[in-house]
Known about the structure:
The complex is a heterodimer of chains A (667) and B (43). Chain A has 667 residues and is α+β, with helices and mostly antiparallel strands. Chain A has 20 helices and 13 strands. Chain B has helices spanning 2-12, 15-37. Helices cover 79% and strands 0% of the residues of chain B. Chain B is mainly alpha-helical.
Amino acid sequence: MWQGVSAWYPPVGLEVAVLTGLGMAYAPLMVVAGLIASIVNYHESPFSLATWLMVFISVGGYTAASYLLRRMLQDNAPFQTLGDVFRYLGAALSAAVFVGVLGPLALTWDGTIPRADYPKAAMSWMVGDSVALVCLAPFLLLHVTPWLRRRAESYEGREQLATAGPKRIRAKAYGARGSLEVMAQAGSIVLALWIVFGSHLAQSFELFYLLFLPTIWIAVRHGMPGATWATLALNLGAMVMLKIAPEDMQRLGVLQFLMLIVSLTGLCLGALITERDSSEQGLREGEARLQAMVGAIDEIVFEFDGAGIIRNVWTTNEAALARPKKELMGSSIQQVFGEEVARPFVETLRRVISAGRGESIEYSIPFGSGARWFLGRVSPIQSPEGAAKTVCMTARDITPRKEAEDELRRAKEAAESVSRAKSEFLANISHEFRTPMNGILGMTELILDTEINSEQREYLEMVKSSADSLLCLLSDILDFSKGEAGKVELVDYEFALAPSLAETLQVMRFRARQKGIELRWNVHRNVPEHVTGDATRLRQVRVNLVGNAIKFTERGEVLVQVDAQELSDPQVILHFRVTDSGIGIPKEKQSMIFEVFTQADSSTTRNYGGTGPGLAITTRLVTLMEGKLWVESEWGHGSTFHFTVTFRSAPRGSALATRDQHREDGL
Amino acid sequence: MEEKAARFSRVLRNPWRVGPGIILVALYILLDRMTVFFRCGRE
Lengths: 667, 43
């Protein structure tokens, strides 16, 4: 028999909490519980189809809702955000409508509820279930089922899985004041319930809105955990108060709605506060992380706006700041450091904000009695709207590095100055050496032309040979020093290339033949007869390279080849190759030989004579003639020295007109 | 399959799953009884 209504129906809240919080495996248990409750509490027949229908409709509807909720909510923290609450309400209240429509229909069909009472019964069922779903189920899901699941999973050895995931919503720990406040809040619930239901001040729930006050107070102060406690307490209290002071049946429907609205308000407000608290906690953690980072990187971090106003300063060492932090905050760079320092700074800040790309800036600021240098790395801070309005700058003190750089530069300048002075000295003094050396050579040759005995001749020839070597070395030193001092100048004039080459090599062929080596040369037909350039410096290069080739070759031949690599009026690039069948140069030593006084192997000095500045001078001369010098060689298989020079082709020059005996010899 | 059976058996022997199950059934019936007790309304 239909015997009035209940303000709300708590078993439904328990059912959804168990199925959502502990698992769908509890669904059969809920069917059993529903059947026993129907038989024991409502004296329904266990063989009645309506009883089974009602139980299956209820358990089926809420099991489906729980199935969805298990996918939508986090296990450990089901109500993290307002979105979570809305998702929960959507699924749970839809199930309440489904059960509220079909459940009473089964009882109406059975005759337990008169057909005329169906709409009222359906509405009461729906709203009663909804109140339970809004107050009891969230309370259990937040405070009870996570604890039970953790214990169960811990027993099964799955504790790690249970504790992983998002942070659980926990009630705060209270001090003495907090405890007093909690007691006052509990008192306010009791007082509000008494005023609304028990006192003679109100009639027909006219003061029901008073129940909002403790709900809002508790939700705002304690977030979701407090809100669930408050709504549960209010709804249980209302149930008890209605037993103590019964109301008209007609007004109970209104009361159910009011209870649902209070519960919804508490739940949504609690979720909102919890979400805000969580965001604030995230911000605080972010700030703490930033502080830790600033401490770890030992740099000062600033936040500027586009006008150069300092919005924030983070540092663990305030002594590193040019002004106290309080003074800097809110001040502009112009105010703090003056216009001169500020101008490039503000330009950089504006550029970074408009381009949205980071930049670096080195700046110096007055600091105490001196100045300090800083390296600033500026990055835009993206605003929520997208475009950057402020920038973040990390500043590192680079004063020691700058001082070291200055010192290094001064030392380099001093060293260069000394080197120039040395070269100038050598260039000047070499002239002074040459005159007496020429005197020694001349006089030695004159004596050699006279009648002297063989022993004297031998000694004098040794004197002449030594003087020749010394004069050659002095010439090299003079040339090198001139190069170092930047005093080498090219003197361009027109000359016939092939005869000039032949003339030089004819002289050297004599020396080569003395060693049993063949010296040959070949000028390609594409080389112009006459060119304009510094023939003297070109001869010096040739003599050096061919001289080295003869020097480091024991047997075989030395071959000199010339061809025009590029021939465009009026420019001609000549490519010279000096190939020998000598000792060769190991690959790893090939770059060394172009340095002054360096040979590939120290043993070669012993075997082939001393080192000199020859290749270094040659490289310098080739570079002056807009060419380059390189070597191809293999240890034990000879070497080929290449060099190019850029000359101008003379107007009357023609390769075809050149006499062949100058163009090649021995080929 | 064997693994599933073993897990199911482990769950059935878990007092933290069986105990709350029995308590929850009792609580459900008790809450329902409470609802009947507190059923209200003056005709």
